[in-house]
Amino acid sequence: MKLGSAIGTVHGLVNDAAHLYYTTWQTYGNRGDLGEIQKNGEGLTALLSLELEPRGLALDQDRIYFTEGIRLKSEPKTGGAPSLIDANFSSQSIASYADRVYGVPGDYGPYDRVVVVFGKGGEAKELATSPRPVSKQEPVGYSAIVVDASGVYVTDSGRGRVLRFPLGGGKPQTLASGPDKPFDLAADDSYLYFDLAKKGRLMKLEKTGGKAQQLASGLVENARIALESGSLFAAFLGESAEAPRSLDKVEAEGGIRAKLATVPSDHTVEAITADRACVYWAEREAGSGKLTFFAVAR
Question: 81 is in which domain, residue-wise?
């Protein structure tokens, strides 16, 4: 089902019980939007017009958190004026947990950091900083972040690691070392799931660390992944460059893969999220700023 259309590049797509929330950026128009889409297909609403590029996007029960340039801001789900939480958060990927927001820089800036701030405002605290290795091939930074009661989990694309940081800060534990550019990240109670940005592999790793297990191959480059109720969702390549791509489901237990939707070969899946009923994604036409948001039963 088509849920709505927009213009630009999608950097964030998240959902709650009734809505999807997204951030877009128009490079040529030099403007962006924070928007809301009703899951029932009844429309799309631009909530805020943004002057600086938005990247990170996260939710809690009442508020939407987003980055605008290097700033971290929030917006009530019910509407109203946005609030500035931190003026120098400098994160392209963020996660909300308890009453805090955590972030990592992606490829932005000269060094890697894990930062946290109280969701209602206050001084941001760096949990860790690290010099970034020189690399000619992106991604090179701390790419993605997931937070739960057991810690802060980060994919380090530059050094080929998956890391766990204590919630209160301190030295990280290396859970996996050697994966080639781990990129997007998801987690359940016992496992982490990540993909390799250039090699198109979907991996599974125990939260305690060890050897990562391959669940699937053939993902598109820099694929975004979503996890919900024991299933992972991502975009996969077609049999040739001209063949249609697909939006597929991969079972976290066993790696069984099933096709859910066809994606034209000249389209890219820029963001993806899921709930217990459906998978939602943003699809952009090549050579065009036109975006379409879709849903399919899972």
Answer: 2-221
